[in-house]
Prior knowledge:
Elements: E1 2-3, E2 11-15, E3 18-22, E4 29-33, E5 53-58, E6 65-70, E7 75-80, E8 86-90, E9 101-102, E10 111-115, E11 124-128, E12 133-140, E13 143-151, E14 158-161, E15 167-172, E16 175-180, E17 188-192, E18 200-201, E19 210-217, E20 220-225, E21 230-235, E22 240-244, E23 269-273, E24 277-281, E25 286-290, E26 311-317, E27 323-328, E28 331-335, E29 342-346, E30 366-371, E31 378-383, E32 388-393, E33 399-403, E34 414-415, E35 424-431, E36 434-439, E37 444-449, E38 456-462, E39 467-473, E40 478-483, E41 486-490, E42 496-498, E43 507-512, E44 517-522, E45 527-532, E46 537-541, E47 566-571, E48 577-582, E49 586-590
Antiparallel strand pairs: 1-2, 2-3, 3-4, 5-6, 6-7, 7-8, 9-13, 10-11, 11-12, 12-13, 14-15, 15-16, 16-17, 18-22, 19-20, 20-21, 21-22, 23-24, 24-25, 26-27, 27-28, 28-29, 30-31, 31-32, 32-33, 34-38, 35-36, 36-37, 37-38, 39-40, 40-41, 41-42, 43-44, 44-45, 45-46, 47-48, 48-49
Amino acid sequence: MVKDSFVAGAYLVVSGSSIYRTTNLQSFELLVGNAAEHGYLEDQGQFARFNKITGIIESPRDKSFIWVADYNNCCIREVDLKTKITTQLAGQCQTCNVTDEKFSEALIAWPIGLISTSPKPTEVYFHENYRMLIRVLRIINNIWSVNTVYTSNVRANNILFDVEGLHMYLTTDTGLVKVHYTWSQPPEEIIRSNGGHNDGTLEQAAVFEPQNMIFLTKNLILLADTGYSVIRVINFAKNTTSSICVPQRGNIYTYTGDIDVCRIKKPTAFYMKGDSSIYVFTDDTVYLLQLTEVIGVSRDYSYRSNSELRFKYITYDTYNSKGYVVAYGYALYTTTDFKSFSPVTGNFFQSGYAKGSATDTLFGNITGILTTAHNPNAFWMADESYGCIRDVNLLTGYSGEVAGQCSVMGVVDGDIVYAVIGKPLELIEYEPDIIVFYDNTNKTIRQLEIGGNPWNIYTRHTVGVEAFGLAYDIYRKDFYVMHAGGILLVNAVQKLKVFNAIQLHSPSDMYFLNKYRILIADYGNNILHLANYQGQILSTMCSGSELNQQSSDSQISVQSCELLQPKLFLKRLDGSGLYIMADHDIYELLYESEPSGEKL
């Protein structure tokens, strides 16, 4: 199943040798082909004939068309979603061979899968099972061509890129293979077995006739194990394989329920809808796999091992005067209490680059959020993974670009139309028309000037360290760069000096309680420091324990509290204290009295 870009709210579903349109997975409209009759015929709607459809993707040339891999007919075909007319696109249908050439002269044999990556959406890859090759449909010298990029030496059941587009994964009848996107390294066997079913480490794992895959996170894959009618969970971070539902062979029956007792028949494919719902497709049934305890500040520690599924940033919701905006995983949410969350845009599990409506948008690692006076209903966000500053409208969830060329990473100053950003960190409003951020690619403080025409990006100061955080002293107009071993101060006249001599372990944020007193989040040591503006540590809060599992409703003094990986401060809207964002928790630091003066 893929999204239907031509009809809003609809999906395209492949079943056998036909393609259907649906909005609810209960009623289906035949688009092209005939489920009961295989063959080859270019025609309209129900009169067109396909053999075995093994891939479908939106055309990178026109969203009103789709490209279809027709396995036994040995070609890639195109379907006009407006007219329902099919045409031969690449290869010579029913002539099975391998020749790299422009679309009309190329030859293809047994194509599997049609996939692309966010950085290069106009390159569409498939696996050639006839000679065990990876090939690509792309523009070469302004001509759409078929080009071979790699010899895999395996027969694939399906292919998929990881969330960052760095590796292609191929399922085989008895294993899982990884290929690096540079196409210069030998294939790596992730799972190598003789068939059967076995969980445990990846070295011990056995799979049988796996088909499609879906990435939930950078390190977590669901695999449709057709041979044993079970869903496999592959965890790269833990080097393990486990199962959802009971494995079955022979006399198979179905039962819906908890993942430990459910039974399904020959799962083949997945489609993720929203943050926590996955459709599981079999030959004749669609199941819903519901993920739980993912969104929210629950005391569920199952996601702590994943470095990506964490809180990334918090700020104020300017559209709702009583609310906050949270970057969590790869998505944005609004909340008023940090207990319940409403999705705005993005996909909690999936990293990538895509702009547009709330349901289409994909983000990378969000490392800064800012609201400007230019549009109080929109947020600017630093996307570290794709090297740009993006914007999101809180009312509609629509996303776009502000500065930098997303997916083109580097450092080039000048007009924002041509300027290039590397790895942006933080967004600070230095003046109404000047936004400052840190760029970890060349380790500099840069600024975005939005007052003139055109807007421009300039390098403000070279610092020379990999930064974990950037803070701004509104009283003295100084910047503070937090790095692995401490804090550097860049003052208003561009002088660089060490802010403090105490051993800090990856400090990540500073909050100015007033002109004289500063809170420092010591991420690596799991503690907070109270310092003066000269860098002297006056006291330490919390004990630096390895893991905090105390009740979320308890109030504990700063002398005996425990917290884990404090990362970011935000003043409560009612002024009674601060929120402290950590990787997997939101803490509250409540004042006994309003902080003021040097004797705080």
